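sorry to bug you again but im stuck and you know this stuff better than me. what follows is a protein written twice so to speak, once as letters and once as structure tokens for the fold. id like you to explain what the token line says about the fold, in plain words if possible. anything you notice is useful, everything is just below.
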Amino acid sequence: MVNVASSKTSAPKKKRSSGGLKKHKPSAYNKYMSVELARLKNEEGIQEHKERFQMALESWKAVKDRDASAKSSGGSSP
């Protein structure tokens, strides 16, 4: 008689790459940076990622500040 437990080899369990966590929707920052980095790479011809990222970050700050001031001033004028 053959022992079933000894004839099977237990393979290690595979881990999920995301750690089992649900993926969240990208934030406005994530979306903006993705588009802006691609635009800078294609239009400006800047080769260094670090330089493109710095420019995109400065642009994001300007957009964020502009939106914040528009919200605090009451939005559109009557």
In short: The CA atoms of residues 57 and 65 lie 12 Å apart. The mean pLDDT is 80. Residues 32-70 form one domain. The chain is about 60% helix and 0% strand.
